[in-house]
């Protein structure tokens, strides 16, 4: 097939929020889905509308909101959390639709690794998909669109950066020659052909139409945004290039560029029931998790910021997920506590103990109050560390910002037992800085209504009298 850059075609994508907002709101979305699923569609909507209304408009009374505010809440739940992020999917059983948590949502809640979540999203994303009105889906099918755009862009950038002159491509070039070009979007043009045409046009000073404005540019910008959240690319005002620290992920993206989980061309969209099946199947496949991502390394070079009444800064090296994320967080806080106690009194530093591998304690680190409690400096401080990894820095000034973490029964009992001496240190590993946030006496804060705590696991104890059937294997 001959490649013509002027064959332009818009393949749109749901518009999300800014990068920081996307990551600030991600735990709210994910834990909301995790809390209520599985459930009926009606229960899901009512429950989630209540949480989102409280987060954004300080009221649980969704029905009392204005039409525009209700539309905002609906957009957060259906367009962003569901369609763009793929955190949940529907299944029809008879006349009832049930909502289920996706594999990718479950991974996010359990591992708190945002870049890996976005890597998975980018790997699963394709055109055609089920993220549009049906008429636009049909247009993509009629136009023979068939591509995994994120994988293709990664492959193109890899090809460009492995040339002898290592040319960088501009955002405009990738947008015009790739993400807005019907020939490429049909999946029939090798990345080498696109690269050679871009270089040829540069050399011959060929001026192509410039993409600008939200109509032409927004769907392209959104795809760059998601690749940045996945930590796969880096950009400036003009250029786009691959993150050299993500070689394993880049290789995976290139290998997966022709691996389509969802076959958009196997449905007869003239039939109503087939349209619903198409949309439901897409959402289910989009939320699947790629197991190849589990052992990939994400490297962040960070300065440490301890957030409190007086923000403190400390030197930190690069953090690499070669071990469990929780172990990374514990090691960091252990080092910070040693430094804090050593600065108070050198002889007391041996009272800082890393105990994360000791089961049943309900905390990871035993330290002392030191300089932060002049009246009781040698009283014990019990620290539970909860770490997460994200690309952007959290915006604590955002009124809608919230976070969620999971505690075991032992940890919550310890929080009640040790009271003001029990602390949760929340660690945010980001691309530019590592933030450490301290929450003191969470049990009291829960009693005062400052934080919400609810059980997510139910223990069932039963005796022989309730057993209806018993099977004995050979």
Q: Could you explain how this protein is built, in words?
A:
By secondary structure, the chain is α+β, with helices and mostly antiparallel strands. The protein has helices at 19-36, 41-57, 67-84, 103-111, 114-124, 134-142, 149-161, 171-179, 182-185, 191-203, 213-229, 247-255, 272-286, 325-344, 409-418, 442-447; strands spanning 39-40, 88-93, 96-101, 169-170, 233-235, 239-242, 299-301, 303-307, 312-314, 318-320, 353-354, 365-368, 380-389, 422-429, 433-440. The strands form four sheets. The chain has a seven-stranded mixed β-sheet with strand order 9-8-15-14-13-12-11. A three-stranded antiparallel β-sheet has the order 1-3-2. Helix 15 links the parallel strand 13 and strand 14 (422-429). Helix 1 packs across helix 2. The chain is globular. It starts with 18 loop residues before the first helix and ends in a 27-residue tail after the last helix.
